Amino acid sequence: MRKDFSRLPGEHIITWLLCCWDNGASSLELEGREAKQLGSLSREGGIDKAIGKKAQALSLWRRLLSSVRERYPFSEDVICRPGKWTTMERGIKYMRELAMWEMVYYDPDNAQLPTDPDEVQCTRLMLRKFVWSAPSSCFNSLAVMDWKSEEAPTVDEVAGRLWQYEETLSSSLVSAVEKLSREVWQLKEDRSYSPNVQTSISVY
């Protein structure tokens, strides 16, 4: 469990939480004394102490969220990593991290709020941050993509559209390369079968 849920040196808090979710932290029920035996998971004393604070049986996931929220009570204290993503896979991971940041500050007693980051609705701010972090090669396409709907899309729905966009882009690129290859091949064929042209040079 320490191997699956320990924060790596230098790893961002939100990235660590997302990794814990993906590794199944929501399926592990722990009492307070059991949680304390895990030792330092977050590499921050305030968070680690809070993980084993409640004695009753709770999922490790709920313990992690509440501990981070207790250590950083204001959302401004935990900022998702800046910088550009270079692949669609990393871009979608960044979108999921933005959703995780939203979840940290959800009301834990509100049963109507999602417990899965992929089910979090993408706010305009989340979409804006995602687009601004996109590489220049696809910034314009993502900026004009129609995200409007009666209800804000979930992270999973946005990810599906992004993978579709990536597939379309890749297909167009492959088609262009194949077309160019055929044209180059045809040009070589034309040259190989063309009759030799003799050039006479007149000397005056």
SSE string, helix = H, strand = E? HHEHHEHHHHH
The count of domains is 2
Radius of gyration, whole Å: 26 Å
First and last CA, distance: 92 Å
Largest sheet: 2 strands, antiparallel
What class do helices, strands and sheet pairing give? mainly alpha
Backbone shape:
elongated
Mean pLDDT: 80
Which residues form runs of ≥5 with pLDDT under 50?
172-184, 197-204
Residues in helix, %: 40-55%
How many beta-strand elements? 2
The helix count comes to 9
Proportion of strand residues: under 5%
Protein name: Ubiquitin carboxyl-terminal hydrolase 4
Please provide a written account of the structure.
The protein is elongated, with a radius of gyration of 26 Å. α2 (13-22) packs across α6. The longest helix is centred in the C-terminal third of the chain and has 39 residues, at 155-193. With 204 residues, the chain is mostly helical. The chain has a two-stranded antiparallel ribbon. Helices cover 54% and strands 2% of the residues. It has nine helices and two strands, in the order ααβααβααααα. It has two domains: 2-76, no CATH class; 81-175, no CATH class. The relative contact order is 0.09. The chain has helices at residues 2-5, 13-22, 32-36, 45-51, 60-71, 88-104, 124-132, 136-143, 155-193; strands at residues 29-30, 58-59.
For the structure shown, list the relevant keywords.
204 residues; mainly alpha; two-stranded antiparallel ribbon; 2% strand; disordered C terminus
Task: Please outline what is shown here.
It contains nine helices and two strands, in the order ααβααβααααα.
